[in-house]
Amino acid sequence: MNPPLLPMLAKRVGELPADGDWIFEPKWDGFRALVFRDGDEILIQSRDEKPLNRYFPELLEPLRSALPTRCVLDGEIVIVKDDGLDFDALQLRLHPAASRVKLLSQQTPSSVVFFDLLCREDRDFRGEPFEIRRRELESVIASAPPPIHLTPATTQSQSRSCLTLSIRRLFGS
């Protein structure tokens, strides 16, 4: 699977569905990103197909170290500060000066939270049910250290507190 690739986008609904088997995940306040790995090459692609590598240099080596040799994952790049996610700090990264980006990457390092697996080696998961993709994603990044994270998920629609606790545990706050 080669870039560019458009991500699947969520659709807003007025209320939670009453029936069916659903998986609930938090909404992240960050930059949507598809991460492509092919050998030593890493490409972080924005939702509008632009490369993001130069803006998040601190993610490249951790991604190279933790991900399978060939894969495509879908997630969100975030910056976490003491009081939660900091979208303003994230936006500051889109700066034309490489020296400024480097400084910001050291002062306010980013993390990536993955919520879907699209491809692993030669297997395309896009046509698979989400439960299968989620299981595969869990196996792919189960032992990945920060700044790589797996988004918390629950099947209980009333478990917002469970997701909040999982997010706090994820980032150690």
Record keyword descriptors for this entry:
single chain; 173 residues; alpha+beta; D-amino Acid Aminotransferase, Chain A, domain 1; two-stranded antiparallel sheet; 5 helices; globular
What does this structure look like?
The protein is of the alpha+beta class. It has one domain: DNA ligase/mRNA capping enzyme (D-amino Acid Aminotransferase, Chain A, domain 1), CATH 3.30.470.30. The protein has helices spanning 57-66, 87-92, 98-107, 130-141, 160-171; strands spanning 31-38, 41-46, 70-78, 80-81, 84-85, 111-120, 123-124, 148-150. Strands 1, 2, 3, 6, 7 and 8 form a 6-stranded mixed β-sheet that branches. A two-stranded antiparallel sheet has the order 4-5. Strand 4 and strand 5 form a beta hairpin. It is globular.
Provide a compact summary of the structure.
With 173 residues, this protein is α+β, with helices and mostly antiparallel strands. 29% of the residues lie in helices and 24% in strands. It has one domain (31-171): D-amino Acid Aminotransferase, Chain A, domain 1, CATH 3.30.470.30.
